[in-house]
Amino acid sequence: MRVIAVTDIHGNSKRARQLAEILEGEKFDAFLVAGDLTHFSGSDKAREVLEPLLELGVPVVAVHGNCDGRDVPEFLTELGITAHNRRVEVGEVGIVGIGGSNITPFRTFWELTEDEIGGILERNYRDGDVILSHVPPKDTNADRVHSGLHVGSPALRGFIERKEPPLVLTGHIHEARSVDRIGGTVIVNPGPLFRGYYAVVDYDAEKKRVDGVELERL
Fold first, then answer.
1. Which of 39, 44, 89, 142 could be a cystine partner for 189, CB 3.0 to 4.6 Å?
2. Burial of 100 (0-12, 13-18, 19+ CB in 10 A)
3. How far apart are CA 37 and CA 194, in angstroms?
4. What's the structural domain count of the chain?
5. CATH code, domain carrying 175
6. Of all helices (H) and strands (E), which one includes residue 7?
């Protein structure tokens, strides 16, 4: 299974169209969006960003980010593509989603306590599922800001240490574009699409194993 992973589009529909043009005619099986489709905007902007990606004709699964407007989660639900606080399936692959972020100093639209993040995982996860989370796990290359501080979710990290999901796709921290590991779990922060970044993940659905990750740029 070949997966295209993006995050942090922040309303840049031009980048979304550029990516769709690159991917047109390419063979892949799913398109996963790890939040912040907009930059404090609503469903109209989210629709504009998603339209060229939906037209590619492959399954799209998304979660909202902490900077998405108040009506964006409902819009993703109406489209039938949200994974927030639920488990969805693409082929033989289960995907559990966490929208929003952990608590930030900025009081953004969608922020969750660590108990809420842990609860989503406990309620929805089945062994071998992929996790699609806007917020990254704490103390990884995927959650380190410019100052060197790690600002990810301790609850998500603790869950990964216990359950070892094969793959976690994340975003939120723009400068933390990376591929990392916690035990047997591969952590991928593709980097923000508004800066032209995305990732291609080759995933063995039968063995529930990541076979390769490429961090790409438009």
1. 142
2. buried
3. 10
4. 1
5. 3.60.21.10
6. none
Cα–Cα distance for residue pair 35/32, rounded to 1 Å:
9
**Which amino acid would we find at residue 49?**
V
DSSP state of 136: P
Determine if the pTM surpasses 0.85.
Answer: yes
What's the domain range around 80? 2-217
Mean pLDDT score, 166-183 = 98
pLDDT digits (tens, 9 = 90+) for 104-115: 999 999 999 999
pLDDT at residue 93 in the model: 98
Q: Which helix (H) or strand (E) is 6 found in, with range?
A: strand 2-6
- The first and second tokens of residue 116, run together, are 């809420």
CB of 32 within 8 A of CB of 6? Answer: yes
